[in-house]
Amino acid sequence: xxxxxxxxxxxxxxxxxxxxxxxxxxxxxxxxxxxxxxxxxxxxxxxxxxxxxxxxxxxxxxxxxxxxxxxxxxxxxxxxxxxxxxxxxxxxxxxxxxxxxxxxxxxxxxxxxxxxxxxxxx
Length: 122
Known about the structure:
By secondary structure, the chain is mainly beta. It is built from 1 helix and 8 strands. The strands form 2 sheets. The chain has a 4-stranded antiparallel beta sheet, with no helix packed on it.
């Protein structure tokens, strides 16, 4: 009987630990199109999100797909229901169509990918 109670208690603890929800991003948008922009003119866009989970959301890094794009982001933990942002800047150094991505690394279950696109003209 004692062994059964211990096994039942351990099972309940394990179930509670596994059912804990991970942090979740809720984005206003995940893609932004700059349209036509002038060569040599850096452009920026701020992606905004809300933490829709019951746990604090912590961004650990934002990795750009190339050196022509940089990002800054909310450094402090975002409380449940709180808002944060990722500010991305694209250096329009050469003409043509572009599509760049930013991969967000965090304590969330998934790593969201944000996309910047547009056309650089003379």
